[in-house]
Specification:
This protein is mainly α. About 45% of the residues lie in helices and about 0% in strands.
Length: about 160
């Protein structure tokens, strides 16, 4: 798959060339698997915590119904720092998403609700890159000096203070 896809539910249920749902890419499923395994989503509102609790219940019901799914989930929950266990959970979620558009849609909806609010406070900044990204992306608040991409100054960007 070229570029990076945003973590949004697009409403269609087609599968890509590798059999993954077009609704969520591997990075999103990996983030969900890591959050489920560690049982945490940082910086969420009360509504986000409620959505994450619902997401956990949804994942448990779906994964428990799959052969060896409960063992995969339990292994990831037992050691969320073990990358192989979390990756196995991501793979299990990918199979479930590919096999059930209803599950995929609900998982995407709850994941969106569980995300922290995108609001900057006290001089903070919120950066978001969405859609397909085919080149360099810089997300920053203050840049002192320049940012260069590739060789030479051809991609050199000057900060406001430069």
């Amino acid at each position: 798959m070229a570029g990076t896809q945003a973590a949004i539910c697009r409403g269609d249920h087609a599968l890509d060339d590798e059999g993954r749902s077009s609704m969520m890419d591997d990075a999103v499923l990996g983030a969900i698997a890591a959050a489920v395994a560690s049982r945490t989503v940082e910086g969420v509102t009360d509504a986000g915590r409620a959505a994450f609790s619902s997401l956990m219940q949804l994942v448990r019901r779906k994964v428990d119904a799959a052969p060896s799914g409960q063992a995969v989930l339990d292994a990831a929950l037992a050691d969320p720092a073990d990358r192989a266990r979390v990756d196995a959970l991501r793979a299990q979620l990918a199979k479930s998403v590919a096999g059930s558009p209803v599950f995929a849609g609900e998982l995407a909806r709850l994941w969106q609700l569980a995300q922290p609010a995108n609001q900057a406070t006290d001089g903070g900044v919120v950066n978001h890159a969405g859609g397909t990204v085919n080149g360099p992306v810089v997300q920053a608040r203050d840049i002192s000096g320049g940012v260069a991409f590739g060789a030479g100054d051809s991609g050199h960007l000057r900060g406001a203070g430069s």
